[in-house]
Amino acid sequence: MKFTDDQIADIGEEIISVLKTVYDPEIPVDIYELGLIYDVQISDDADVKIIMTLTTPNCPVAETLPQEVKDKVGEVEHVNSVDLELTFEPSWNKDMMSEEAKFELGML
What we know:
By secondary structure, the protein is α+β, with helices and mostly antiparallel strands. The protein is 33% helix and 17% strand. The chain has a single domain, classed as GMP Synthetase, Chain A, domain 3 (2-Layer Sandwich), CATH 3.30.300.130. It has helices spanning 5-19, 31-34, 64-74, 99-104; strands at 37-42, 47-52, 81-86. This is SUF system Fe-S cluster assembly protein. Residues 13-83 form the MIP18 family-like domain.
């Protein structure tokens, strides 16, 4: 089934809502506000590709966090498949956090 642009936009919003329920265990801010999600691409078949990073390559949740993201996004209504790519280019830094995340962490 092909989805319209509006439907894709709705699926995208739903995916972002779900991403905001995933937290880095060491920082009390969700991974979306932290800037760990570099890109979310949704095809008109609702195949989703997520490009994300971790705060460090040796992050204690390097194994489990991407899987949690994949599982949760896979549960979003109409999502057909989820392809998750983990990258460390560019490497994450504090400037990638949203203003809200910086505020939460007392950096503003």
